[in-house]
Amino acid sequence: MRAVVFDRPGMENVRMMDVEVPRPSPNEVLVRVKYAGVNPVDYFTINRGGKPMPHIPGAEFVGVIEEVGSNVKGISVGDEVTIYNRLFDGTCRYCLVGHEELCVNGGLIGVVTNGGFAEYAVVPATNAIRIPRGVGLDEAATLPVGALTAWHMVFDRAGVKPGELVVVFGATGNVGSYAVQFAKLAGAVVIAVSRKASKVKGALMELGADYVVTPEEAQTLVNELSNGLGADLVIDAVGQATWNLSFQLVARYGKWVTAGALTGGDVTLSLPSLYSREVTILGSTGGTRAELIKLLDLLSKRRIKAPIYSKMSLDKVKEAFDTMFKAEDRVGKVLLIP
């Protein structure tokens, strides 16, 4: 099979190779990959290394079941599936309360195992979730990283309420474009923040943004809409580059939540500013299987949209990363097609 492979860290070491098709163990399934999403997690894996080495990255993908292990039940050859990308043992204290994303013996498919930037991939059967009718495979490919991360941040961690003022930084990205949708779905007033606001305004407003502004314009608008009080929730997965501004925008008794640090993770926090305003800072990572199933249901009922920017062949993987990071009008996902 053809696969994206690197044998040492660095994007310059990524190449297409012919490798042996993996075989599933008794509790695994073999998936013929149809679409794979391109995400920052894949970029960091390529530049930091994964397991095993040489390594096939790709943490977000969908496909069709080609073979099932001898112990597998409830899923069959020919089923279209999306892959819940968190490995979990099902027995630790977090798994037992439904938070597989925090499994103490877990990890990410595509990071601690070979991933979906290939024609075929092997995954545990419990990670393969059947795609309902009415959902395209390309649409489903946007869910396991971008949508699931955003859903978990907005609803499980931050608990957004109707009428709240929510500010989303990095609103054009994989997570941000879904965070805009979900905050609006919850009944919030949504400000989408992007340095390329003028080029993406229409697309973000179609996803539910009430306002689309640049970082430089955000403070003035938040003050205007809140009578100077600030935002009830700020979502910021951008990291170091926007931290000072985004934390400053939070209202007293408000919340700030992140699930990433694309521009760096080292920031300076003023403890007096934190406690005097009673601000809640929240971390969030991925989401649960139950939440992914919920997202598939919402997509099948057309309650949400799957923002897809472009689709490229697998051998265009380096171009796909350039597009994800540099395209000035990108809103949503870049997908690879094996």
Automatic annotation (TrEMBL):
MF annotations from Gene Ontology: adenyl nucleotide binding; anion binding; metal ion binding; oxidoreductase activity, acting on the CH-OH group of donors, NAD or NADP as acceptor
A GO BP entry: protein tetramerization
Keyword Metal-binding: yes
Residue span(s) of domain Enoyl reductase (ER): 10-336
Coiled-coil ranges from the UniProt annotation: none
Keywords: Carbohydrate metabolism, Metal-binding, NADP, Oxidoreductase, Zinc
Classification via Pfam families: ADH_N, ADH_zinc_N
PANTHER family: L-THREONINE 3-DEHYDROGENASE (PTHR43401:SF2)
Protein name: Alcohol dehydrogenase GroES domain protein
Organism of derivation: Vulcanisaeta distributa (strain DSM 14429 / JCM 11212 / NBRC 100878 / IC-017)
